[in-house]
C-alpha cells in the first residue's frame, strides 16, 4: 500500500479539476478550517436548543449524531470522544426532561447516538493512520525528488542559477517535467524537458534522460550530439514499456549551452516551448528554432533532427527555460498566460526574483487553478541589472 501512495505522491493526476491553491487561497482555507473546527460544538448546542424549545415529539437526533462524526473528521481523538460523550449526555438529559427515557423510542434514539459516537472514534483512528501513511509516502517522494531532480548550484562563474518545480496537485512532488544543469569543458550546459504521460513510467523516463544528459554533456562536443544520445537512451527505455507508452511515448526538450566566453547562447530545441532571453533593457525575446524538429523518440516519423541556434547573451541577460505548464496556464475565460507580455519591460535583480515573480503572475492569472506541472530554470549572466 505504501508503494501505491508513493506513486500518487510522486506523480499526481494531471486533470483539469486538480487545483494548486495560491497564497491567498491557502490563507482563506486555513481561516475556514479554523472556524470549521467549532462545528461539533455548534451542532451540540444547536441540537440541544432545538430539542428543548420544540414540541416534545420533535427529536434532534440528527444533530447529536452529526457532532461526533464531524469531530472525527476535523479534530483529535480526545475531542472526538468528548464530542460523543457530550452528544450522549445532551440527548439523555432531554429525554429525561420530556419523560421519554423509559420509552422504547427513547432508548432506541439514545442507542443510536451512542453507536454513532463509538463509530466516530473508529473513523477518527482510521483517518489518523491514513494521514500517517500518506506523510510517510510524502517523505519517500521528497527523497526521490531530491535524488532525481537535485538542485543545481546557485552560481557557476559569472552565471547565477535558479530553478522552481510547481506541481499541479498538492500531493505531487515530481512528475514528467525535468531540468538539469552541468558545468562542462564546453561551457555550462542545461536541459529542460517534459515527458509525455504520467505514472512511474514518466518518472523512469525522467531519470534516464537526466542520467544520459549528465554523461553526454561532459563528452559530446555539440548539443546535437547530446540530443542524439538522449534519443538513443530514451528509445531504449521506451522499449521496456507496454501499451501506448511504448509506441506513443515521447519527450520534448531544449538544450542550452553558454560557452566559457559567455557572449553567446546556443540552443537546440526538440519540440519544446521556445526559450526566452531577457535583455538588460527589459526586452524579452522568444527564441523559436530556425528549423523545427520533432520531440525526442519521434525522429523516425520525419526528417530533420534540428539545428543549433546561436543568439547573443550579453552581460545582464537572463535565459528562461520552462515547460508547457507555464504557457498553457489559463484564466477563467480560457486565455493562456503569456510570459513574454508579462515580463517585457522588467529587469530583475537575479534569477530567483524572476522565477518568484513569474510564479506569482501565473497564480494571479489562473486564480490558483494550476492544471499542469511547471519546471522553470533561469540563468542570469552577471552584469548591469535594475529592479522592476
Topology of this structure?
Blueprint: H1 2-11, H2 23-36, H3 39-53, H4 61-74, H5 77-97, H6 104-148, E1 155-156, E2 159-166, E3 177-184, E4 187-195, H7 200-219, H8 223-238, H9 244-247, E5 251-258, E6 264-270, E7 276-278, E8 284-286, E9 308-312, E10 318-322, H10 324-327, H11 339-343, H12 351-366, E11 374-381
Antiparallel strand pairs: 1-2, 2-11, 3-4, 4-5, 5-6, 6-9, 7-8, 7-10, 10-11
Helix pairs in contact: 1-6, 3-4, 3-5, 4-5, 4-6, 5-6, 7-8
Largest sheet: 6 strands, antiparallel
Intertermini distance: 49 Å
- Secondary-structure element pattern, one letter each: HHHHHHEEEEHHHEEEEEEHHHE
Mean pLDDT over the full residue set: 83
| Low-confidence sequence ranges | 1-25, 384-388
Q: How many E strands?
A: 11
Q: How much helical structure, as a percent, in the residues?
A: 40-55%
Write down the Rg.
29 Å
Strand order of the largest sheet: 1-2-11-10-7-8
Proportion of strand residues: 15-25%
Please identify the structural class as seen in this structure. Answer: alpha+beta
Output the number of helix runs. 12
Shape: elongated
Amino acid at each position: 500500500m505504501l508503494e501505491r501512495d508513493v506513486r500518487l505522491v510522486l506523480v499526481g493526476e494531471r486533470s483539469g479539476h486538480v487545483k494548486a491553491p495560491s497564497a491567498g487561497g491557502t490563507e482563506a482555507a486555513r481561516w475556514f478550517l479554523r472556524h470549521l473546527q467549532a462545528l461539533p460544538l455548534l451542532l451540540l448546542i444547536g441540537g440541544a436548543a432545538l430539542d428543548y424549545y420544540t414540541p416534545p415529539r420533535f427529536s434532534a437526533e440528527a444533530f447529536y449524531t452529526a457532532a461526533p462524526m464531524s469531530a472525527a473528521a476535523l479534530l483529535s481523538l480526545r475531542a472526538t470522544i468528548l464530542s460523543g460523550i457530550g452528544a450522549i449526555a445532551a440527548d439523555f438529559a432531554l429525554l429525561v426532561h420530556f419523560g421519554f427515557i423509559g420509552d422504547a423510542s427513547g432508548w432506541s434514539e439514545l442507542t443510536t447516538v451512542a453507536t454513532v459516537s463509538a463509530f466516530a472514534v473508529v473513523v477518527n483512528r482510521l483517518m489518523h493512520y491514513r494521514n500517517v501513511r500518506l506523510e510517510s509516502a510524502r517523505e519517500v517522494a521528497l527523497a526521490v525528488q531530491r535524488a532525481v531532480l537535485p538542485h543545481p548550484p546557485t552560481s557557476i562563474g559569472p552565471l547565477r542559477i535558479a530553478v522552481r518545480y510547481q506541481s499541479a496537485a498538492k500531493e505531487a512532488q515530481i512528475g514528467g517535467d525535468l531540468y538539469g544543469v552541468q558545468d562542462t569543458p564546453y561551457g555550462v550546459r542545461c536541459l529542460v524537458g517534459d515527458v509525455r504521460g504520467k505514472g512511474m513510467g514518466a518518472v523512469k523516463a525522467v531519470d534516464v534522460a537526466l542520467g544520459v544528459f549528465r554523461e553526454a554533456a561532459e563528452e559530446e562536443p555539440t548539443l546535437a550530439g547530446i540530443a542524439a544520445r538522449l534519443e538513443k537512451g530514451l528509445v531504449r527505455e521506451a522499449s521496456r514499456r507496454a501499451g501506448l507508452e511504448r509506441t506513443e511515448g515521447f519527450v520534448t526538450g531544449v538544450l542550452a549551452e553558454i560557452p566559457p566566453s559567455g557572449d553567446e547562447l546556443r540552443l537546440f530545441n526538440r519540440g519544446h516551448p521556445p526559450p526566452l532571453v531577457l535583455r538588460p533593457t527589459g526586452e524579452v525575446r522568444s527564441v523559436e528554432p530556425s528549423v523545427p524538429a520533432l520531440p525526442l523518440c519521434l525522429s523516425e516519423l520525419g526528417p530533420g533532427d534540428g539545428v543549433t541556434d546561436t543568439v547573443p547573451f550579453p552581460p545582464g541577460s537572463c535565459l528562461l527555460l520552462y515547460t508547457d505548464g507555464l504557457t498553457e496556464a489559463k484564466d477563467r475565460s480560457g486565455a493562456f498566460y503569456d510570459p513574454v507580455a508579462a515580463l517585457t519591460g522588467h529587469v530583475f535583480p537575479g534569477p530567483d526574483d524572476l522565477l518568484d515573480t513569474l510564479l506569482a503572475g501565473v497564480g494571479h492569472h489562473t486564480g490558483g487553478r494550476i492544471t499542469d506541472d511547471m519546471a522553470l530554470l533561469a540563468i542570469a549572466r552577471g552584469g548591469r541589472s535594475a529592479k522592476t
